[in-house]
Design brief:
heterodimer; A: 14 helices; 0% strand; B: 67% helix; elongated
Chain lengths: 315, 301
């Protein structure tokens, strides 16, 4: 068990190092990042000063060592545009992205759980067909287009919801209205994933011996599903939900831009166009660290709950 | 649980062994109607774009801007799906856009699939440090937000068809590597691999002749599903104004052009998005069906 956890932690750390290398090299693929980050109208002298301040005149290897050293101390550089440290800049936007991701996950669960559970109960029934359509649509419709169509329908035609922004925040009188469309749009893919997963998890559970036992005891269908079956299927569903949350946090890049949502995704996209690569590097690094950490925790939790896994994987 | 046995699923008795081509043809004949029809239409549209087009995809016509679709008030059949803010024919641009989407989709899937599969074969079969190295790189790419990395690379490399393909392939190989590696891990313990090893077959030949043919089914399913997500990713980049030069009629950039006029001219943004959704629906349905057809493990679900 300890060996397994230790190995997974070391793998996670190694992964993050590779991520840092990729993120560092990203701005170097076209050669000198000076051209990327400075205005094309900058003078030769300004470029020289820029190179020296950011250490771009040193060899690539030593630049990377500095980059990692600074990153470990929590220094990911300053934004060229705002002049603030990027860590602070991104952390200011992070709660907004978290709010959006949590709302999207909530919608995905509220729709996906019952639809998935009922479709497992009656394969090829009404719910199963609805579920299949939801799953297929969520995976096929580009969510940024779905967002624009929602704006057309709910904001432009019906005038029910505001088109963009976050208003005065979630807890102001009309604040929640701003959250609905972006959250709904962002949830489309997760909704599909959770519906599919709940269905297959429930099918597995319903096929098990203890459910047959409950059936034999003559329990009502309601008790059977909600008390016995769903509770056991919930473990794998929650695992996927926690992974979905991380995916939603970093997957809201385009959606935030569509709805003018002031989160870290929209910040990153703005930064790309403003050649403000330090901001983008940090958003990418933060997302990767969150992804690796949650994955690691889920794996360890699984190993704790299910001994079969740790023996299988350490073999 | 009821078990249904259908006659056509039972093995048939054949006099002569069927050729590879014959098998392929029979498989195609069984493709379900919806994905079959959708994908045939998309492919034919892409191939015959020059014949199907009504106008030039790039010519602007400032006298006929914001014309609505033909069936609405003020529309005419010379512009069946209306015109955009520069008077360009939306139907024509969607027709040409299908060509771009398919070119980008197929090439990216081919490059990404080849790269991912090669890495998976080496990692899974050779193991040890090669596996550790390849899998950490794969994990790293998997952990980073794929679209954000694509956005950054596309912005740095600049807009062109080649760059768009490079960017999408550079972030799109990871799923093949992960899934196929686990298949390889399973396969390399099999007796036929041990037999090949005993016979003195060299490692590259074992990988190519004995392991690869056994992962082709998985690869085919993955590639079909990835085709759809590649088309969506390309459209997302186009939507942000990255990837292809702005004049090119790509579905994603058409969406972006229609967005500012959503309140007055909904058709500019609606139709290209519909084209993406229908195409990707086709590839996803085909992928699901292929998985069901090729992988017996999924049939019970």
């Amino acid at each position: 068990m300890h060996d397994y956890v230790l190995r997974r932690v070391l793998q996670g750390i190694a992964t993050i190092f590779v991520v840092s290398l990729v993120i560092f090299l990203m701005t170097r693929i076209s050669g000198d990042p000076t051209d990327l980050m400075m205005s094309p109208y900058a003078t030769t002298q300004e470029r020289e000063v820029f190179r020296r301040t950011y250490g771009l005149d040193r060899p690539l290897g030593s630049q990377y060592v500095t980059f990692v050293g600074n990153a470990m101390r929590g220094d990911l550089g300053k934004s060229l545009r705002w002049g603030d440290p990027v860590v602070r800049l991104v952390w200011e936007r992070f709660p907004n992205t978290l709010e959006l991701a949590l709302a999207a996950l909530g919608i995905a669960l509220v729709v996906g759980l019952p639809v998935g559970a009922f479709s497992a109960l009656r394969p090829n029934g009404v719910f199963d067909n609805v579920g299949k359509i939801v799953a297929l649509a969520g995976q096929s419709i580009p969510n940024f287009w779905l967002g624009i169509m929602l704006i057309l329908l709910l904001a432009v035609d019906l005038r029910l919801l505001p088109t963009s922004g976050r208003g005065d925040g979630l807890f102001s009188p009309n604040g929640w209205k701003y959250l609905i469309m972006p959250a709904l749009t962002l949830s489309s893919f997760s909704m599909a994933a959770i519906t599919r997963l709940t269905r297959s998890a429930m099918l597995d559970v319903l096929d098990s011996e203890y459910i047959k036992m409950v059936r034999l005891k003559g329990a009502s269908t309601t008790v059977l599903i909600w008390k016995h079956a769903l509770k056991n299927a919930l473990i794998s569903i929650l695992t996927v939900a926690s992974l979905q949350l991380v995916i939603l946090l970093s997957g809201s890049v385009v959606i935030e831009s569509v709805f003018g949502w002031p989160g870290m995704g929209a910040l990153a996209v703005q930064a790309v166009f403003g050649r403000d690569y330090a901001v983008v590097q940090f958003v990418a690094l933060l997302s990767a660290v969150m992804f690796v950490t949650v994955n690691l925790l889920v794996d360890i939790l699984y190993a704790v709950l299910d001994p079969r896994i740790r023996y299988e994987r350490s073999a | 649980m009821s078990v249904r046995l259908s006659v056509e699923r039972l093995p048939r008795v054949r006099s002569a062994p069927e050729s590879r081509l014959g098998k392929l043809a029979r498989a195609f004949a069984q493709v379900p109607v919806i994905p079959g029809v959708v994908l045939t239409i998309v492919v034919l549209t892409a191939v015959f774009a020059d014949v199907l087009a009504l106008h030039s995809p790039t010519a602007t016509d400032l006298e006929h801007t914001f014309r609505p679709p033909a069936w609405t008030a003020g529309g005419s059949w010379s512009h069946p799906l209306g015109t955009d803010n520069l008077g360009r024919d939306i139907y024509t641009r969607i027709v040409y856009g299908s060509r771009l989407s398919l070119i980008v989709g197929f090439i990216v899937v081919f490059i990404g699939g080849s790269l991912g599969t090669t890495l998976a074969l080496v990692a899974g079969y050779v193991g040890k440090w090669a596996d550790a190295l390849i899998m950490r790189v794969t994990d790293a790419f998997f952990a980073m937000p794929f679209l954000l990395v694509a956005i950054v690379l596309a912005a740095i490399l600049g807009p062109s068809l080649v760059n768009l393909i490079v960017v999408l392939a550079a972030v799109g190989w990871t799923r093949y590597a992960r899934v196929i590696r686990s298949e390889v891990l399973r396969l390399k313990e099999m007796d036929f691999v041990a037999a090949a090893k005993l016979a003195g077959t060299r490692t590259p030949l074992i990988l190519w002749r004995h392991i690869f043919p056994n992962v082709v089914n998985t690869l085919l399913v993955l590639a079909t599903l990835e085709l759809g997500s590649t088309i969506i990713a390309a459209a997302a980049l186009g939507f942000l104004g990255l990837g292809l030069p702005p004049t090119v009629p790509a579905w994603g950039s058409m969406l972006a052009e229609g967005r500012p006029y959503i309140a007055s001219a909904w058709w500019i943004a609606l139709f290209p998005g519909l084209a993406i959704a229908v195409t990707v629906l086709g590839t996803n349905l085909l992928g699901d069906w292929l998985r069901w057809r090729l992988d017996p493990r999924y049939r019970q679900l």
